[in-house]
Write a structure and sequence with these properties.
By secondary structure, the protein is mainly β. Helices cover 9% and strands 41% of the residues. The protein has a five-stranded antiparallel sheet with strand order 4-3-2-1-5. The radius of gyration is 11 Å and the shape is globular. The two termini are 16 Å apart.
């Protein structure tokens, strides 16, 4: 899956605060993501997060 830093991931399941949108802070074997509502940061394994992505909203500056 092609995910970059500053993309917003819309997940199938919501965070406990009720929001299902996460900003990608770091990409690798683990993803570091931040909830866009409560600003809570978590590290999640790539395999687990890729299963739960519903949609990827691309950042404007991700042009390689």
């Amino acid at each position: 899956m092609d995910v970059h830093v500053n993309d917003v991931l819309v997940m199938k399941k919501a965070h406990p605060c009720g929001c299902n949108r996460f900003l990608v802070l770091r990409v690798g074997m683990d993803f570091k993501v931040r909830c866009t509502k409560c600003q809570h940061e978590v590290m999640v394994a790539r395999a687990k997060i890729e299963r739960n992505i519903k949609k990827i909203e691309r950042a404007e500056n991700n042009t390689d």
